[in-house]
């Protein structure tokens, strides 16, 4: 299908090649770009598929690329690739309208799943999404301390930083984190952040 086009933007040639190979073997039609400007120049309207872009790039970074795509009227779903510790950037990307983010180094299957989901949804999950409503309901069951830890996690803070702010040990933060992950049923920090942003909790 024409909609299974993935526009990959990454300034690292090795990463671009490996993504091109992986996605090609999965049956996607892959278009590779070294920079955000190349993608913006090459897109026609209405553009098909989705965009997979690194968040940290020289020149136009992932966030700026997302802003320019939206300003140009492109509604393509955008999946961001983020480095470890880029949670605040990922949150900003989601607020700007990215439909997902995936943290490097990522599992191939997780990436494929994120792209298929983006292509199927055609964009951001809406508030009507029953999974999202259920997540928001579960957040309502958190204790006050668990909710504080959740807010700090979504803000990109480490256990040490959270512990200092809340005047508890990093180990205690980890215990609260494990409890809130179990209560919200988020499988990863990435999922926790994604649902928190989509649910308007971040």
Automatic annotation (TrEMBL):
Q: Which positions carry 4-aspartylphosphate?
A: 54
Which GO terms of type biological process are on file? phosphorelay signal transduction system; regulation of DNA-templated transcription
Q: Where, if anywhere, are coiled coils annotated?
A: none
SUPFAM superfamilies xrefs: C-terminal effector domain of the bipartite response regulators, CheY-like
TM helices/strands, residue ranges: none
Q: Residues in domain HTH luxR-type?
A: 135-200
Under the heading InterPro entries, the entry gives: CheY-like_superfamily (IPR011006), Sig_transdc_resp-reg_C-effctor (IPR016032), Sig_transdc_resp-reg_receiver (IPR001789), Tscrpt_reg_LuxR_C (IPR000792), WH-like_DNA-bd_sf (IPR036388)
Q: Name one matching Pfam family.
A: GerE
SMART domains per the record? Answer: HTH_LUXR, REC
What region holds the Response regulatory domain? 5-119
Write out the entry's keywords from A to Z: DNA-binding, Phosphoprotein, Transcription, Transcription regulation, Two-component regulatory system
A single GO molecular function, which one? DNA binding
Cross-referenced NCBIfam families: PRK09390.1
What PANTHER family does the record point to? DNA-BINDING TRANSCRIPTIONAL ACTIVATOR DEVR_DOSR (PTHR44688)
Q: Which named protein is this? A: Transcriptional regulatory protein FixJ
């Amino acid at each position: 299908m024409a909609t299974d086009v993935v526009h990959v933007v990454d300034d690292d040639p090795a990463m671009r090649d490996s993504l091109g190979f992986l996605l090609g073997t999965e049956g996607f039609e892959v278009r590779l770009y070294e920079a955000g400007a190349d993608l913006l120049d090459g897109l026609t309207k209405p553009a098909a598929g989705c965009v997979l872009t690194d968040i940290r790039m020289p020149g136009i970074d992932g966030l700026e690329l997302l802003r320019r795509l939206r300003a140009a009227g492109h509604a393509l779903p955008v999946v961001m690739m983020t480095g470890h510790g880029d949670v605040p950037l990922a949150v900003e990307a989601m607020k700007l309208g990215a439909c997902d983010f995936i943290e490097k180094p990522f599992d191939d299957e997780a990436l494929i799943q994120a792209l298929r989901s983006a292509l199927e949804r055609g964009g951001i999950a809406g508030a009507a999404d029953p999974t999202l409503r259920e997540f928001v309901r579960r957040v309502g069951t958190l204790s006050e301390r668990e909710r504080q830890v959740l807010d700090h996690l979504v803000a990109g803070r480490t256990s040490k930083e959270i512990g200092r702010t809340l005047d508890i040990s990093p180990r205690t933060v980890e215990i609260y984190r494990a409890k809130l992950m179990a209560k919200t049923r988020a499988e990863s920090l990435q999922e926790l952040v994604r649902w928190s942003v989509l649910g308007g909790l971040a």
